[in-house]
Every structure is written in C-alpha cells, then in structure tokens.
Amino acid sequence: MPKSLIAIAQLTSLPTPGDTLPHVLPLLTQAAARNARLLFLPEACDYLSPTPKVAAVQHAAPLAKGQNLFLDALRSGAKEHKLWINVGLHERCTTDPTRCWNTSVLLDAEGEIAGVYRKVHLFDVDLRDRGGPLILESSTTVPGEEIVDPVETPAGLVGLQICYDLRFPSPPTFLQPAPHILTYPSAFALSTGPAHWSLLLRARAVEQQCYVVASAQVGEHFQGRASYGQTLAISPWGDVLGELPAHSPSNPHPAPELLFVEIDTEAVEKVRREMPLEHSRRRAEGTYDVARLRRLERVRREEEGRDGVDGVDGGGKVLEQGGSI
Ligand SMILES: O=C(O)CNC(=O)[C@H](CS)NC(=O)CCC(=O)C(=O)O
C-alpha cells in the first residue's frame, strides 16, 4: 500500500455455471501472473440464462461451501493464487425458492467470504420504444434490503454495488467508512449502454471521490441476449484510467479479457482533502428539506388547533390567515 494492481475482467457468461467456468478460471491465473491483488468479475458471472423464469433461477445456488460449484471453484482459485476476487452470482433465495438474489461476493486471498451484497435496485423497465427489451428482473429476483459496509482489501476499502444500482447516487453516500473503490459488476443493456454507462460511472466517481471499477459482461450469451461491455476503471477525479471494447455485432463472442489498473489510495485521500465534499455535505436533519417540512407541519398544527377551539372539522379547509410557507 498505498499502490496496488487490480485486474478487471470482461467476458461472456453462458447459460450454465458449468459452461461458463472454463472461461473464467484462466483469468485467475492471468491476474495472479501479473501480481494483481484483487480480481473483479462481472454481475451474473456464473450464468446468463434465457427466459422463461424457471430457467433463470434453476442454477441459482446457496453460497455455502460444498453447495455452489461455481463459487467453490473460485474459492480454490483465490486460495491457490493468493488473490482476492469480487464476483456477481445468482444466489438461491431462502425466503422464496422461485426467485434468487442478485448477489456480489467478495472473497479474500484464503477463499473465504469477506463481503456479501444483494442488489437493492432491480431492473424493471420497458425500453421497447427504444429498440430495447421489456425486462422485469423482479420476476426472477428478490431485492436486497441492505447497503453493506465497505470491506478492507489489499487494494483499499471496497464498496459493493451492482449494475443498475449505478443509476442511484444516494446509496454510496451512506457507505462508512467512505470506500477507496466503488465496484459495479454489470451486465448492461445494449440499448442503454451508449447513452448512460460511462456517464453514470464517471459521475459516481466524481461524487464519491473514489475509484470506480465496473467489470462488464459483453457479447452474445445466447440467441437474443447480448451485453454492452466497455469494462471501465475511473479515477477519483473522474478520468477514464482504462477500458475494454464495447460489444460489436461483428464480434459477438470475444475472448475473455482483463484490464489492469493501479490503485493508489493516497490519490483518493488527496482529492478528498482538496475538495472536502463529505465535510460540506448537509444531511436531511437540519437542512433545507427538513426545515421546510417542519414549517408545513407547524402551519398544519396551528390550523388544527384553531379548528379544535372552534369545534369545526378541519378537513379540506383553506387557510384564512397566516401560514406563509
Ligand atoms: O438477468 C440476470 O441474470 C443478471 N442480471 C442482469 O443482467 C441485470 C438485470 S436484468 N441487468 C441490469 O441491471 C442492466 C441495467 C442496465 O442495463 C441499465 O441500467 O441500463
């Protein structure tokens, strides 16, 4: 520390974990050969399945050792190569067996689980007017309920988010302590990627004043589903430090690839010293929003009090005096 090398993968997951795994494992060897400390793999790295619904969850497995072929192989690889790994998986949901969680797991260099985050924001959209899909992620996936604390890794503190979460600026503002790296493992849509992918990832880096790392699915997973790609690493100042190619219809099955980037936690601290956003941030309590709500509440009470004295039901009454907002 404070400088360390990380590897960020771009690949095309296939419809089963068994088919996908042989494309993923060589990336661990390649990352370790370059002495990377941490490897980032994409969302839904275990498989991307055609609808219908049943097919989409039938390979979802618990995270426990011995119950997840895909994660077990990554655990062994992490241990063998002394490599931390972040990976997106379909996790079997214990509360609803017909759906899964969209989960991001962080493995330490012993292959033990150091962090688990379940995607909070689900991709329920109708983009058919834009040549895109109608997708209801919530039909196969149960939303996570928690933002999880950043995890200390050899590359710095890592904050876990997933794909569509990148459209929501607020969750990272609640991460404590503030991470050095925010990661968004993704499988972005072809119809939204060109307009929004790099724009939003850069915005998250500038707002949070940290590295943003987004390992992306790319290419055609099966007939009718492809991902946008353009794996990205962004600096705490918002510069693109490195990227891998976006999907190209002329190359629907590109070979898995790694992007190597050096992380310098001191660069994060420097930007935060120069422009102390966290110091200037005004949380809901004591700010303009809350002051305005209090004013409205006071007016409402005054009105009720008056009605009470008059013995009149106040429902639907218009203020006659005072109560300026
Ligand atoms: O379906 C699976 O098995 C894995 N999950 C995904 O691919 C998810 C939900 S469909 N994709 C996204 O969130 C894309 C978001 C996006 O493209 C945007 O925000 O524009």
Automatic annotation (TrEMBL):
Record's protein name: Carbon-nitrogen hydrolase
Domain CN hydrolase: 3-265
PROSITE patterns found in the cross-reference section: CN_HYDROLASE
Lineage: Eukaryota, Fungi, Dikarya, Basidiomycota, Agaricomycotina
Region (Disordered): 301-325
Keywords, comma-separated and alphabetical: Hydrolase
Parts forming coiled coils: none
MF terms (GO), sorted A to Z: hydrolase activity
